[in-house]
Design goal:
single chain; alpha/beta; Rossmann fold; 7-stranded parallel beta sheet; 6 helices; globular
Length: about 220
């Protein structure tokens, strides 16, 4: 994959954070963007901007940690664009709560959104990519923000799991020319984080876990 022109890119959790930062970069590359979030409210404006500038993009609302909702959305994407060339697993939540006070629901919800959704999307889209002869999957791991460890146990645990899952998925899917990598962005160095994501998507490497350092 030498460029993204005409390639269909599905990005989950695109309504905020690093996912939102990726949208204009993908559009600039000429990608056809399928942008997901649990609600499309935050996607309406950036999608409209991309379309006004001559690009192709559409928003899809779905809770991607729910298998039925995910597969329904994937069916809609295929109906609209015919294929998925790149999957970016970015959907994420981050409750801030001490371990001794955290509700079990918050723990499970965090692991479901951050880790289970990555598994479900990788599995379903990976099967599609296998049939179409290949593709790229980029998992977004820990987003460094300088906040430390306190009150972030569920978030940190789920994001560390993404790194191991990426390596395992890369090993299993490489024979199908489905290349899986992970990026650990840095909020203080968002531009380099976005450019690193593009390099991973466009390159031929697999099983790479790239951490972006703080901007100097």
């Amino acid at each position: 994959m030498n460029d993204l022109k005409g390639k269909v890119v599905l990005i989950t959790g695109a309504g905020q954070g690093f996912g939102a930062a990726m949208l204009p970069a993908l559009a600039k590359q000429g990608a056809i963007i399928a942008a997901n979030d649990i609600t499309t409210i935050n996607l309406d404006s950036p999608i409209e901007q991309i379309i006004t500038a001559g690009g192709r993009a559409k928003a899809y609302d779905a809770d991607v940690c729910k298998k039925l909702a995910l597969q329904t959305m994937l069916g809609d994407v295929l109906e609209d664009f015919g294929r998925i060339d790149v999957l970016i697993n970015h959907a994420s939540v981050q409750p801030r709560m001490p371990i001794l006070e955290m509700d079990e629901w918050d723990w499970h919800r965090t692991l479901d959104v951050n880790l289970t959704a990555t598994f479900l999307a990788t599995q379903s889209v990976g099967r599609m990519m296998r049939e179409q002869g290949g593709g790229k999957i980029l998992n977004i791991g820990l987003v460094e923000s300088g906040e430390g460890l306190d009150k972030r146990s569920a978030y940190l645990s789920s994001k560390m799991g993404i790194e191991s899952f990426t390596l395992a998925a890369a090993s299993e899917l490489a024979e199908h020319k489905v290349y899986v990598n992970a990026l650990l962005p840095n909020k203080s160095n968002m531009e380099e984080s976005v450019q690193a994501a593009l390099r991973l998507i466009l390159g031929d490497q697999t099983a790479q876990v790239i951490k972006i350092e703080e901007e100097k």
